[in-house]
Design goal:
- By secondary structure, this protein is α/β, with parallel strands linked by helices.
- The chain folds into 2 domains: 1-35; 39-231, 3-Layer(aba) Sandwich (Rossmann fold).
- The protein has 7 helices and 6 strands; from the N terminus they run αβαβαβααβαββα.
- α1 (4-35) packs across α7 and α2 crosses α7.
- 40% of the residues are buried.
- The model is unreliable at 4-37 (pLDDT under 50).
Length: 232
C-alpha cells in the first residue's frame, strides 16, 4: 500500500529532476548561443519625412548610432524617403522603381532590424509614411518577407506631447501585420518608442527625447542579436 507521504516524496523528486533537466537544457542553449560565431547584422532606419535631412533623420541617426554600440558586428544604414517616388498604394497598379529599391534593401537577409521614423501630422504618421507602409503590402504577397525582423518606431512632434505616441502606435499596427517583432525603447525610459520634440527644426535640446532614441536603437539591436543567437 502506498502512503500519501510516499506519493508526495515521489512527486517532489520528479519535479526536482524535471526542473534540473530544464535548467540544464537552458544552460546548454545559452552555451551554444555564446559559442556560435556572431554573424554581421544590419539595422536600417527609414525616415518618412517629406523634408530631407531634418529632425526625423537626425533622430534616426542618434538611434542608429546607439544600435551600432550594441555589438561590434552591427551595421546600420539610413534611408530617407524624401524625394523618392512612393505613390499612394493601389492594388491594381504596380509600385514604383524607387520603392522596389528600398524593398530590396529591407529584404536583404543581413537586415535584422528596421526603425521607422515619422514626423507627427495631426497626431498621426505622415502621408509618406502611410504610402510606404501600404506599399509594403507586397511583402504580404511574397511570404511575409519582413516576418521575424525586429522593428521599432520613432516619432518627432512640434510639442512635447504632440501625438508622438499615437503616431508610433499607428505605425506599429502596420508592422505587426508583417509579423515583425515590434519593440519599444529600452530602459530606463521603456515606453512605446522614441518620442522627440522638434524645437525650431532642432532636437539637440530635447534631452529626454534623445534618450528615448538611443534606447530604441540599442533595444532593436539587442533583441536582433538575441534572436540571432537563439537561431544559431
Amino acid at each position: 500500500m502506498t502512503s500519501k507521504a510516499d506519493t508526495t516524496r515521489r512527486g517532489f523528486f520528479g519535479a526536482t529532476v524535471a526542473a534540473g533537466a530544464a535548467a540544464g537544457a537552458l544552460a546548454a542553449g545559452h552555451a551554444r548561443a555564446e559559442a556560435a560565431p556572431s554573424r554581421p547584422i544590419k539595422i536600417i532606419g527609414i525616415a518618412c519625412s517629406p523634408r530631407p535631412g531634418k529632425t526625423t533623420a537626425a533622430g534616426l541617426k542618434v538611434a542608429l548610432e546607439a544600435a551600432k554600440g550594441a555589438g561590434p558586428n552591427v551595421e546600420t544604414e539610413l534611408i530617407e524617403l524624401a524625394g523618392l517616388n512612393i505613390p499612394v498604394f493601389d492594388p491594381a497598379a504596380p509600385g514604383s522603381a524607387d520603392f522596389e529599391k528600398v524593398a530590396a534593401k529591407l529584404t536583404d537577409p543581413r537586415v535584422a532590424g528596421i526603425i521607422v521614423g515619422t514626423p507627427v501630422y495631426f497626431s498621426n504618421m505622415t502621408s509618406l509614411a502611410k504610402a510606404f507602409l501600404d506599399q509594403c503590402m507586397v511583402f504580404r504577397k511574397k511570404g511575409l518577407a519582413l516576418s521575424g525582423k525586429v522593428a521599432g518606431v520613432l516619432a518627432v512632434g512640434g510639442v512635447r506631447n504632440g501625438g508622438q505616441e499615437l503616431a508610433i502606435q499607428s505605425v506599429q499596427a502596420a508592422l505587426m501585420c508583417q509579423e515583425m517583432v515590434v519593440v519599444g525603447d529600452g530602459r530606463p525610459t521603456a515606453h512605446t518608442g522614441a518620442t522627440l520634440w522638434n524645437q525650431g527644426d532642432d532636437i539637440s535640446g530635447d534631452e529626454f527625447g534623445l534618450a528615448t532614441a538611443r534606447n530604441l536603437g540599442r533595444r532593436v539591436a539587442e533583441v536582433a542579436l538575441q534572436m540571432q543567437g537563439a537561431a544559431g
